[in-house]
Design a protein that fits this description.
Length: about 130
């Protein structure tokens, strides 16, 4: 499977994988139907994009009647985690604490957002004690 991140995908590829994630599985026709709500695309353009995503390891397919049904090979969360790791590596030399320090200084966080962060930190501490 390809180790590319979401950041490496083109705009159309990203739109296609997002639709497949939303639907859990989809045919080319279903993806094209979703995409043509905002832009005109030929069936073959969508098919080619999905085939490229399959070749890159993002999708796999199975045959149902005369159609291929595509499903993702990784979850949105798995793909997002890889993108975040890449971002932290590129921008902060792999130092997540440095990134959080930057976010804390530069962001205007509400009390509820700060409470949520505290909750996540406490959960992570409990996991470390197990």
């Amino acid at each position: 499977m390809s180790k590319k991140s979401l950041d490496d995908l083109g705009e159309l590829q990203r739109a296609v994988i997002e639709i497949v994630w939303d639907l859990d599985q989809a045919s080319v026709h279903q993806v094209r139907e979703q995409l043509t709500r905002t832009r005109k695309l030929a069936y073959t353009t969508v098919l080619t994009t999905m085939q490229k995503l399959e070749k890159a390891g993002w999708l796999r397919h199975r045959t149902e009647g005369k159609s291929y049904v595509y499903e993702p090979t990784r979850t949105r969360e798995e793909a997002g985690a890889r993108s975040v790791r890449g971002f932290v590596d590129r921008m902060f030399g792999g130092d997540a604490v440095l990134m959080f320090q930057h976010l804390m200084r530069e962001s205007k966080l509400t009390d509820s957002e700060l409470a949520e962060l505290r909750k996540l930190i406490n959960q992570k501490r409990k996991e470390g004690k197990k």
